[in-house]
């Protein structure tokens, strides 16, 4: 049978006939850390779970198919997927990263810089001149994040990948915010795609995981080698659970996105809102780019309030003040003091991560209830 391409089909059919013992429809959890050998020279396909795991392989195949990629390394967090990507570089290699990237990416790059392992250049990747100038500094890896977290700024992925290739640099795109259901960076020229599967791919706020997807056999082999050597792979249990959560990914994304648009439109008309950042709004400044590289605007909205974010964020009863995203429950956070607190204040200011900013990950609740709850936040200002 040819490989399915429809996202619904991929998530519904993954591993359905993979239980050789009882022919269960839902794939079992092969929790064993180790597997029997026939003889000292007869290494089985699955020998030790840090190296290879049937549950991890099932999940990896499904994520690779969703991204339109050949290979996927499933890791134990989004950050270990990031580290795994950076381990592919020579010591001291220059990494060109967005000045408004996810705070954990910023922290990791800076930590590795302090040890002399990478040389990060943080630039506004929407500034053509700055990007082109930075690229001349022997850049080995271009780190893309589109849309950015928390400001939902888009980067022209195909253009930046082509520029990176022209100087022999690899590109990685963090696709966590949109999921493969809304953007497929490999098709736009990226060499690697990163996911924090902790977020929408699992979707149930109950585990950590990551994924690193590629099309290049050699690169994938090196990635698998390092995942094993450094112990960065995801556990069998988390892989099993993530595949279970992923069964509903296309449905969840569609519903969350529909609600996000309603909330963004409502927020845009609110007198206590200074600005709304959401790629689905008519007023979004990069609409053409949304059309060119995304198949939908996603479920993340950020907005600036006129008043105290602390008062606003504490008032809702349904919406929770917490720092993850992509799950079933709507969460808000104040990036300046929460997700991006690892970024020095000057870097936050330069990236536009100001104290009045609220990031909202829209979940599966009903839109009207969420609007009622946001109103409670505004009433508290
Ligand atoms: N990338 C993005 C865009 C994120 O938002 C996060 C976490 O919030 C990560 C990567 C890191 O993922 P994890 O928390 O699974 O390590």
Key words describing this protein structure:
12 strands; Aspartate Aminotransferase, domain 1; 16% strand; Cys/Met-Metab_PyrdxlP-dep_enz; binds pyridoxal-5'-phosphate; alpha/beta; 5-stranded mixed β-sheet; pyridoxal phosphate binding
Describe this structure in words.
By secondary structure, the protein is α/β, with parallel strands linked by helices. The chain has two domains: 7-246, Aspartate Aminotransferase, domain 2 (3-Layer(aba) Sandwich); 249-379, Aspartate Aminotransferase, domain 1 (Alpha-Beta Complex), CATH 3.90.1150.10. It is 36% helix and 16% strand. The strands form two sheets. A seven-stranded mixed β-sheet has the order 1-7-6-5-4-2-3, with helices on both faces. Strands 8-9-12-11-10 form a five-stranded mixed β-sheet. Helix 2 (54-67) runs parallel beside helix 8 (236-246). It is globular. The termini are far apart. Pyridoxal-5'-phosphate (PLP) is lined by residues 77-79, 102, 104, 149, 174, 176-177, 196, 198, 208, 210, 325.
Count of folded domains = 2
Count of alpha and pi helical runs: 13
Helices and strands, in order, run as HHEHEHEHEHEEEHHHEHEHEEHEH
Bound molecules: pyridoxal-5'-phosphate
Query: Largest sheet, described in full?
Result: 7 strands, mixed
Shape: globular
Helical coverage, percent range: 25-40%
Please state how the strands of the largest beta sheet are arranged side by side: 1-7-6-5-4-2-3
How far is the N terminus from the C terminus?
Answer: 59 Å
Overall CATH architecture of the largest domain: 3-Layer(aba) Sandwich
Q: Report the top-level CATH class of the largest domain.
A: Alpha Beta
Instruction: Report strand %.
Output: 15-25%
Number of strands: 12
Q: Catalogue the unreliable spans.
A: none
The helix/strand class is alpha/beta
Rg of Cα set: 21 Å
């Amino acid at each position: 049978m040819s490989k399915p391409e429809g996202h619904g089909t991929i998530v519904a059919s993954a591993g359905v006939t993979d239980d050789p013992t009882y022919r269960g429809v839902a794939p079992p959890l092969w929790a064993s850390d180790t597997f029997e050998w026939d003889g000292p020279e007869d290494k089985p396909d699955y020998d030790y779970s840090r190296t290879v795991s049937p549950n991890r392989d099932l999940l990896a195949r499904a994520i690779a198919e969703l991204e339109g990629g050949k290979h996927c390394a499933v890791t134990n967090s989004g950050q270990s997927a990031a580290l795994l990507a950076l381990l592919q570089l020579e010591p001291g290699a220059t990494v060109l990263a967005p000045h408004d990237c996810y705070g954990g990416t910023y922290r990791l790059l800076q930590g590795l810089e302090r040890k002399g392992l990478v040389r990060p250049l943080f630039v506004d990747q929407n500034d053509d001149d700055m990007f082109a100038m930075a690229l001349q500094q022997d850049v080995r890896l271009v780190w893309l994040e589109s849309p950015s977290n928390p400001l939902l700024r888009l980067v022209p992925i195909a253009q930046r990948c082509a520029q990176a290739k022209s100087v022999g640099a690899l590109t990685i795109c963090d696709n966590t915010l949109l999921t493969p259901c809304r953007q497929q960076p490999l098709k736009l020229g990226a060499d690697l795609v990163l996911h924090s599967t902790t977020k929408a791919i699992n979707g149930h706020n109950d585990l950590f995981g990551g994924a690193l997807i590629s099309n290049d056999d050699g690169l994938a082999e090196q990635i698998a080698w390092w995942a094993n050597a450094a112990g960065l792979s995801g556990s069998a249990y988390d892989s099993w659970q993530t595949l279970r959560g992923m069964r509903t990914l296309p449905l969840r994304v569609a519903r969350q996105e529909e609600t996000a648009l309603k909330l963004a439109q409502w927020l845009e008309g609110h007198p206590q809102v200074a600005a709304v950042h959401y790629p689905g709004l008519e007023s979004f400044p990069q609409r053409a780019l949304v059309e060119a590289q995304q198949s939908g605007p996603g479920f993340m909205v950020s907005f600036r309030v006129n008043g105290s974010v602390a008062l606003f964020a504490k008032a809702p009863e349904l919406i929770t003040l917490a720092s993850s995203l992509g799950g079933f429950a709507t969460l808000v956070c104040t990036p300046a003091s929460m997700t991006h607190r690892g970024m020095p204040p000057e870097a936050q200011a330069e990236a536009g991560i100001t104290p009045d900013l609220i990031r909202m990950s829209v979940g599966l609740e009903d839109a009207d209830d969420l609007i009622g709850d946001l109103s409670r936040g505004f009433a508290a200002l």
